[in-house]
């Protein structure tokens, strides 16, 4: 992972000192709320329904065990003993005291972490596929390119006050775990027929009030021109994006109103002006960033298949966990393990200080001292020897972290919702829990198979409900909490936006609606067909008719 140099440490220390002074002046009444607002946002601090919320950046989702332990310390000493992992690979603390926020930032700086540009109208934390660097089928490790983008975008003077917040995702795998097509900019690593690896760049994607799938602005960009291509997109957006209406200020609106062809022309004209500038990447700079993401000291010619096969045959519970939560690794003899944080009765994505300490120990013991945050609000140990998977599973079971839920209906993506967020129309967490309790039979969940459920408490779509196979949106209906349900969404490579079923439902009706949707799927599916594939084959109407027939 990237290691800070002397410049990085100095920059971060100065930023912490600066924000401490700003906070002291605000608390002393020398700065107004309006004056302090952009200052706190630039340091990841929101004012939520009940308390401030601090969003901490986890660049491309990668954490060392030392950093995980520091997050546990912060959760224990400055919060209520837990943090919340987000769909963009960050962690949020929901209960810090404003006066203590500078102290938290100082603690983060000790382990090369920060909250810079996790909020505000700037380029936010760059995200990527959480299997980057270890996936057996990836084109190339995307993490060095994320790091280059992070260094380019952090404190970029031209893009510090954009029309609206801006999010970039990079993907190097065919499956696309990063929701790349619904970001303001989505970057795909591609391989040409010649074997050369380059980039395909999309722009204008996004969720929120106006969900849009991004469209290609560059079909083929050589590696050395990555930053100039991104700079060209940003310049056009910064000049022409609307600032008069925050609901129309995202780049997706600019692309739509301009037309993708005209927008593409403007970007390419800008690119021609800057293509040979100092932003052009040299081989030395590319190799510098790649040097931080070398493979760990794998045991070569490792053969753990015999031990693994024996344990899979001996223990059906372990076999079920392995089938769901372990993915193929590029290195023979290793596996990629997802630790599910989706135990029934626990808010999806919440992780306690004790669990963080435990996961840090597991990272040291099994995965070269590193872990990752996934877009599905889980934790990944990316480099586990196959012969040690059974031992890891048994260790996980001591802390009830062995849930074999990955990809199943109960592996719900969920924002904090009305329990915390001042913007939310309705609560999200209780709905997720009720669905998990309603579908509590492990055998049935396996029979249903892959089915992504996403829940958002408002139209800002922090739970990515637009791209859930089943999406649930909290809405306000005459002062009461109701839930609008959509189906058919996906954030994978063949991305699609879910279509609303119809009128919204009261909270106690949601599990029953879910049951009806699953029943239609199971009645209509062909052999080994997923929920999404069945939906795309039979269409919207059979699901809609069944749901509203049952609800009246």
Query: In percent, how helical is the residue content?
Result: 25-40%
Shape field: globular
Proportion of residues in β-strands: 15-25%
**How many structurally independent domains?**
4
CATH topology of the largest domain: Sulfite Reductase Hemoprotein, domain 1
CATH classification, class level of the largest domain: Alpha Beta
Summarize the main sheet.
Answer: 6 strands, mixed
Number of distinct beta strands = 21
Low-confidence stretches: none
Class of secondary structure makeup = alpha+beta
CATH-derived architecture of the largest domain? 2-Layer Sandwich
Structure description:
With 552 residues, this protein is an alpha+beta fold. The protein has four domains: 6-110, Sulfite Reductase Hemoprotein, domain 2, CATH 3.90.480; 134-290, Sulfite Reductase Hemoprotein, domain 1 (2-Layer Sandwich), CATH 3.30.413; 305-397, Sulfite Reductase Hemoprotein, domain 2; 413-551, Sulfite Reductase Hemoprotein, domain 1 (2-Layer Sandwich), CATH 3.30.413. It is built from 18 helices and 21 strands. The chain has helices at 6-27, 33-41, 65-78, 101-110, 143-153, 226-240, 251-258, 260-274, 283-290, 305-314, 316-325, 353-366, 389-397, 429-438, 442-448, 510-524, 531-538, 541-550; strands spanning 45-47, 52-56, 62-64, 82-85, 91-93, 127-128, 168-171, 185-191, 197-203, 215-221, 326-328, 334-339, 350-352, 370-373, 379-385, 413-414, 453-456, 470-477, 480-487, 499-500, 505-506. Strands 16, 17, 18, 19, 20 and 21 form a six-stranded mixed β-sheet that branches. Strands 1-2-5-4-13 form a five-stranded antiparallel β-sheet. Strand 1 and strand 2 form a beta hairpin. The longest helix is centred in the first third of the chain and has 22 residues, at 6-27. It is globular.
């Amino acid at each position: 992972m990237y290691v800070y140099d002397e410049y990085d440490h100095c920059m971060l220390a100065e930023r912490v000192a600066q924000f401490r002074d700003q906070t002291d002046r605000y608390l002393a009444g020398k700065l107004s709320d309006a004056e302090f607002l952009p200052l706190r946002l630039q340091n990841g601090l929101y004012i939520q329904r009940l308390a401030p919320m601090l969003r901490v950046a986890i660049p491309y989702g990668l954490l060392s065990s030392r950093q995980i332990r520091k997050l546990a310390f912060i959760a224990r000493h400055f919060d209520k003993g837990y943090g919340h992992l987000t769909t963009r690979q960050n962690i949020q603390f929901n209960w810090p005291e404003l006066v203590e926020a500078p102290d938290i930032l100082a603690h983060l700086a000790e382990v090369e972490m920060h909250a810079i540009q996790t909020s505000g109208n700037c380029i936010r934390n760059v995200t990527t596929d959480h299997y980057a660097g270890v996936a057996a089928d990836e084109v190339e490790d995307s993490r060095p390119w994320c790091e280059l983008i992070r260094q380019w975008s952090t404190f970029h003077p031209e893009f510090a006050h954009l029309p609206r917040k801006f999010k970039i995702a990079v993907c190097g795998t065919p499956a696309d775990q990063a929701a790349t097509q619904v970001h303001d900019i989505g970057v795909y690593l591609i391989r040409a027929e010649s074997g050369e690896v380059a980039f395909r760049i999309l722009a204008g994607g996004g969720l929120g009030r106006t969900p849009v799938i991004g469209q290609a602005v560059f079909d083929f960009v050589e590696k050395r021109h990555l930053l100039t291509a991104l700079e060209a997109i940003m310049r056009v957006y910064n000049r022409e994006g609307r600032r008069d209406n925050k609901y129309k200020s995202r780049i997706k609106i600019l692309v739509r109103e301009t037309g993708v062809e005209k927008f593409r022309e403007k970007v390419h004209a800008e690119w021609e002006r800057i293509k040979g500038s100092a932003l052009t990447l040299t081989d030395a700079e590319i190799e510098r960033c790649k040097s931080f993401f070398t493979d760990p000291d794998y045991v070569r010619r490792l053969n753990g298949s015999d031990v693994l096969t024996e344990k899979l045959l001996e223990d059906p519970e372990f076999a079920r966990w392995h089938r769901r939560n372990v993915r193929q690794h590029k290195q023979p003899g290793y596996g990629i393990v997802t630790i599910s944080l989706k135990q029934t009765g626990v808010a999806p994505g919440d992780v306690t200080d004790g669990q963080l300490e435990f996961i840090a120990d597991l990272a040291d013991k099994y995965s070269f001292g590193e872990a990752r945050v996934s877009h599905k609000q889980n934790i990944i140990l990316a480099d586990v020897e196959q012969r040690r998977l059974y031992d890891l599973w048994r260790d996980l079971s001591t802390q009830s972290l062995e849930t074999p839920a990955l990809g199943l209906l109960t592996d719900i993506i969920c924002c904090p919702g009305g329990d915390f967020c001042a913007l939310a129309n309705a609560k999200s967490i209780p709905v997720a829990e009720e669905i998990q309790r309603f579908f509590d039979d492990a055998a049935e969940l396996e029979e249903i198979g892959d089915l992504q459920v996403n829940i958002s408490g408002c139209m800002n779509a922090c739970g990515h409900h637009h791209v859930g196979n089943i999406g649930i949106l909290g809405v306000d209906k005459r002062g009461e909490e109701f839930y609008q349900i959509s189906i058919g969404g996906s954030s994978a490579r063949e991305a699609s936006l879910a279509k609303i079923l119809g009128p919204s439902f009261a909270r106690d009706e949601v599990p029953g609606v879910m049951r009806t949707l699953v029943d239609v799927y199971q009645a209509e599916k062909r052999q080994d067909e997923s929920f999404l594939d069945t939906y795309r084959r039979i269409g919207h109407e059979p699901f809609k008719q069944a749901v509203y027939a049952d609800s009246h």
